[in-house]
Amino acid sequence: MIKRLFEIIISFVALILFMPFFLMIILAIWIESNGSVIYKQKRVGLNRVEFNIFKFRTMKQNSDKEGLLTIGSTDRRVTDVGFVLRKTKLDELPQLFNVLIGNMSLVGPRPEVKKFVDLYDEEQLQILSVKPGITDYASIEFADESTILETFEEPEKGYVNEIMPKKLALNLEYIKNRSLGGDFKIILLTLLRIFKKK
Predict the structure, then answer these.
(1) Whole-number CA gyration radius for the chain
(2) What is the value of pTM for the model shown?
(3) Alpha-carbon distance values, 164 to 98, 99, 124, 171 (Å)
(4) What is the DSSP letter of 110?
(5) What are the domain boundaries of the chain?
(6) Residue 100 DSSP SS3
């Protein structure tokens, strides 16, 4: 209850503070490419319930039909504005609305698409016993995931066999030791990681 109240207050205040960025990002996306500003994608959340995750659109329209993973720093599907948004993680800002709605937390295991969740074993499915979040230890550890994927001959297979198990292991560790203090630490580490990449 305390965590939920904290998240409502923080996400509401953050949305007000970031409103100028929202407006500038919306304008930049509109000017560069046709299509909706917000990208919605089905993800699997708490208790295996699917929901729409919100992001600023960083790719050309219907690019997800060519694959769910972003490969490398020069994926031709990503727009120029999109590259900046992804690098700074500003594309994730609309997920503050997910937090207000209640299908996401500020901190928690990043939600996956059903295609990959269907590959989880029984232990890994425990991750779905907590609400997914905007950031977690796996997000920090694999902040350069798209660049790592570029090194694999078959990126999707590399993701499933190499990256996903490591991310899930970090998430399971988080679940075992989660606390409000730990969440603050993850938020701080996330911010430090973002500013370090700039």
Answers:
(1) 16
(2) 0.89
(3) 23, 24, 10, 10
(4) P
(5) 2-197
(6) helix
Digits of tens for pLDDT over the chain (198 positions)? 788 898 999 999 999 999 998 999 999 999 998 889 999 999 999 999 999 999 999 988 777 766 667 776 667 888 889 888 988 889 999 999 999 999 999 999 999 999 999 999 999 999 999 999 999 999 999 988 888 888 888 989 999 999 999 999 999 999 999 988 999 999 999 988 877 755
Residue tagged 């990256």 (tokens): 163
Helices within the chain (DSSP H only): 2-17, 19-32, 80-88, 95-101, 114-117, 137-141, 145-149, 155-158, 164-177, 180-197
Other CB atoms within 10 Å distance of the CB of residue 188: 10
